[in-house]
Amino acid sequence: MKEYDQYDALGLAELVASGQVSASELLEEAIVRADRYNPALNAIVHRFDARARALAKIALGGGAFAGVPFLLKDLGDEFANEPMAMGSRGIRYVPERHSELVRRYLAAGVMPFGKTSTPELGLIITTEPKSHEPTHNPWRLGVSSGGSSGGSAAAVAARIVPIASGSDGGGSIRFPAACCGVFGLKPSRGRNPVGPRQGEGWGGAVASHILSLSVRDSAAMLDATAGPGPGAPFVIAAPPGPFLEAAGRDPGRLRIGYSSRPMIPAAIDPQVVAGLERTVALLRSLGHEVEESDPAIDQDQLWRDFTAVVMAHTAALVEQVNSLGEDVSRQLEPATVSMARMGSALSAVEFLRAQEGWHRIRLALGDYLRRYDLLLTPTLIGPPSAHGVLPPSPQEEAMLNVTNHLPVARLLYRSGQLARTMLPVLSQMAFTAVGNITGLPAMSVPLQWSEDGLPMGMQFMGRMGDEYTLFQAAGQLERAQPWFQRRPPLIRAEAS
């Protein structure tokens, strides 16, 4: 079915609605593609084809995505009676019911048939867990697909499915979207539900949504899923109209600030800066007022406060994992154990001080976005990395295996050892983590490419609750510089 490549998710749903193709036929095409491409990509880690085939045969209702094949990230998106490993070698958690967001995905009409790869507990910005082989970038095998939604991003970029679910705690939708050349929006804190098993993730940093080939698919899905779930700790204002409507409407003249100054200490590749400058030129050609302006962010304080909160939450999660038994806990990766131990070593006062640091960052970005409608930055600090660059090296893991068995976590935290082991990875989130700390909506748009043909996304951040303006801007950029026609080498020959 070569035509499968020519449609986004809404386009495929329209084919089903008009009777030109059946939901079962679309599902079989997705299954064939998964069989063909996943052995090279390692993007899908669990399949339930038979269950999906049964779903395709029943009445799908009137959801906007009725009949569209779909993949779920194997972290957070609980699908009843299907195992969840969360990127870990030992965890096999089988939920008894769907999470609230999965329930809404199903109500929108999608047909899940598998779970996508993620790093262990979503703790690193590349999808290279020890539980299975690394997930490859469809644009170049041996290169990272990003993380932690790297499996979903790779599956969408490779046209196995047009949309797949993701979650974002430090850039984990936007980062893989940028690595794989697809569209990825992190909604505002509270826009989509995260329950019922939890009220918030990482102190409100985690938000969930989809990765997609097109802007309108992302907009339409957010229309379908947005709104608080039972017991939600955050309830935000409704948009001025449907997000799908926004994606098709130009935003008028926007005032956009842009910055190439990393908000976590990092070295920025000149290719990324050049891509940012080209994006600025494109925006000006569309009539927007764009000026260089750096947010007033303390780089050093941001990453230390972000890390402290995330480590504390990791410690709490690992404690739950340890309750599953020694066979499970001893299979956790050394870096995960190290983060949990340092999180346990934090005092309550240190944790609260870090949260106060988050508040200062929210104030700084809130002030910035009083002057500008949007903030533009790169998504990545450089082109996607080769496999083996971002995870701990064998030597670092050997050191962690020693220190993890010694009562020195607090000493290591205060000595600066944390900086030496974690900052190289944290620096990759130099432009994305601030969106999670603040809860502001942010998107990675596949506008720029490296000199040797790898994707490099550009990030736009908006005011709290204002995904509407982001979708307007994204839709305009998509019309001005379409990316849908670009296909990775993995499938280019078949598309021609």
Q: How would you explain this protein's 3D organization?
A:
It is a single chain. The protein has 496 residues and is an alpha+beta fold. It has a domain at 2-250 and 467-495: Amidase signature (AS) domain (Amidase signature (AS) enzymes, Alpha-Beta Complex), CATH 3.90.1300. The protein is 42% helix and 14% strand. It has 19 helices and 13 strands. The strands form three sheets. Strands 6-8-7-12-13-11-9-10 form an eight-stranded mixed β-sheet, sandwiched between helices. Helix 5 (150-157) runs parallel beside helix 6. It starts with 8 loop residues before the first helix and ends with a helix. The mean pLDDT is 94.
Fold topology:
Blueprint: H1 9-17, H2 23-41, E1 44-47, H3 49-56, E2 69-73, H4 100-107, E3 111-116, E4 136-137, E5 140-144, H5 150-157, E6 163-168, H6 174-180, E7 183-186, E8 207-212, H7 215-225, H8 243-247, E9 255-258, H9 270-285, E10 289-292, H10 299-322, H11 326-329, H12 334-345, H13 348-371, E11 374-378, H14 394-403, H15 409-415, H16 417-426, H17 433-438, E12 442-449, E13 455-462, H18 467-480, H19 489-495
Parallel strand pairs: 2-3, 9-10, 9-11
Antiparallel strand pairs: 1-3, 4-5, 6-8, 7-8, 7-12, 11-13, 12-13
Helix pairs in contact: 2-3, 5-6, 10-12, 10-13, 12-15
What labels describe this entry?
alpha+beta; Amidase signature (AS) enzymes; about 40% helix; about 500 residues; three-stranded mixed beta sheet
